[in-house]
Amino acid sequence: MKNIAILGTGMVGKTIGTKLISLGHAVMMGSRTENNEKAQEWSKSNGSMASYGTFADAAASADIIFNCTSGQVSLEALQLAGRENLQGKILVDLANPLDFSKGMPPSLTICNTDSLGETIQRQFTDVKVVKTLNTLNCELMVDPGLLNDPGNLFICGNDPEAKFEIDSLLKTFGWEKIIDLGDISASRGMEQLLPVWIRLMGTLGTNKFNFSIVK
Amino acid sequence: MKNIAILGTGMVGKTIGTKLISLGHAVMMGSRTENNEKAQEWSKSNGSMASYGTFADAAASADIIFNCTSGQVSLEALQLAGRENLQGKILVDLANPLDFSKGMPPSLTICNTDSLGETIQRQFTDVKVVKTLNTLNCELMVDPGLLNDPGNLFICGNDPEAKFEIDSLLKTFGWEKIIDLGDISASRGMEQLLPVWIRLMGTLGTNKFNFSIVK
Fold it and tell me: Is B150 in the A-facing interface, judged by CB distances under 8 Å?
């Protein structure tokens, strides 16, 4: 059992949180306010191992923190979580720096020579950032068996032990073919998969698909 | 038999050119100068259906033009080919706007809210630009059977008939699972696959791989 924080109360946060509860972990869902309705509701329907609080409460309670906030507010959410509550811990970053404000398709607010994953790692130097899962619909994140062929999962980060721990956790989600792309700068490539992912979603008429690397 | 121009005398141009010759097409390889050594050598070793000349000679001779120049010089090469020689024709754009001048990994000189494919289409409005093959090593471009599972090929462009014609040509290369991503703006996603492609090449230790979309 791990103590895990989920930052964010959207679909991604709820889906990941519920999966972690089902696997026997203690999960606190964090948001801006102490009494976020969505977090309360999620907590109520997930039993005694589920709790909720502020971003800071959640981060303080946890060994592993999942950033499930929208990429546009991730840095702010992490600041609210508090440097002292994040220090030395593993931060799993699922977010994409997508800007929908100018309509579809969204653009990336950080890309090419930088990425959100790298920005978080630079701003929180004593946190072990692990980027993964960002190119999947949240139902697939926690249940790769929904696909006939689940395909590959990408992971990157600077700390090998943190990656190993998250790799093991992802295997309990059902992921088998996990490709370690190296240090956190691989976030650039992983986040830049979003434009073709969004286009594929339109072409295929579904968000239930994944990339597989074939050789 | 089609009359096809190859712009560029590098590995990509030679590989595509040789494949097209083997399929019975007439191929002229174009370069900056009339007597480029590489183009002469390629032409000599590819029989009577192979010829060479300037970018303009090659474009003038062809129904279909393959842009096999490096992305950094593609626009210049197309200007040298001449608007009048390209007009109304199909331009297959394989290039990626990669800048290696600041070392590895390269960055993209155009990305996110624009792409090389779109830039070419904007600058040459009466050319039918079809973007495809840009995420593959050139040996795989012309021989997908080198992979146990060839995976998918992406294609995009504004002109449905031009895409249909190139789709048919690519099938003669051996490509079966071709995904039409829509209009030329899909070039953004296709070109932004390069950062993760380059990272994967390092991780896998080979450039003989491809993306497959699994459902």
Answer: yes
Tell me the residue range of the domain where A57 lies: 3-204
Would you place residue A94 in the very low, low, confident or very high pLDDT band (cuts 50, 70, 90)? very high
B193-to-A111, A130, B85, B160 alpha-carbon distances in Å: 12, 21, 31, 23
Whether B212 is covered by a domain: the verdict is no
Chain B residues with CB inside 8 Å of A182's CB? 199, 202-203
Q: Is A177 a domain residue?
A: yes
Q: Name the DSSP class of B10.
A: S
User: Under an 8 A CB cutoff, do B206 and A196 touch?
Assistant: no
Report the CATH number that the domain containing residue B157 is assigned in CATH.
3.40.50.720
pLDDT digits (tens, 9 = 90+) for B1-35: 999 999 999 999 999 999 999 999 999 999 999 99
Q: Does B214 touch chain A (CB under 8 A)?
A: yes
| Residues of chain A with C-beta less than 8 angstroms from the C-beta of B211 | 211-214
Q: How many pairs of residues across A and B have Cβ atoms under 8 Å apart?
A: 120
Place of tokens 């991730």: A74
**Residue A212 covered by a domain:** no
| Tens-digit pLDDT profile for residues B136-169 | 999 999 999 999 999 999 999 999 999 999 999 9
Residue of B104, B184, B175 lying closest to B141 (CA atoms): B175
What pairing do the DSSP bridges indicate for beta strands A90-93 and A26-31? Answer: unpaired
- Is B212 in contact with A208 (Cβ distance < 8 A)? no
Q: What is the mean pLDDT of residues A72-94?
A: 98
pTM exceeds 0.90 for this model: yes
**pLDDT tens, position by position, A5-34:** 999 999 999 999 999 999 999 999 999 999
The phi, psi pair for A164, rounded to 5°, reads -60, -45
What does the alpha-carbon distance between residue B151 and residue B146 come to, in Å, rounded to a whole number?
Answer: 11
How far apart are the CA of A162 and the nearest CA of chain B, in angstroms?
Answer: 19
Domain-located, residue A209 = no
CA distance B79 to B120: 10
- Residue B49 contacts A, CB cutoff 8 Å: no
Distance from CA of A177 to the nearest CA of B (A): 13
Q: Indicate the number of domains in chain B.
A: 1
**Residues of B with Cβ-Cβ distance to A110 under 8 angstroms:** none
- Helix and strand totals (H; E) in chain B: 10, 11
Q: Which residues of A touch B98 (CB under 8 A)?
A: none
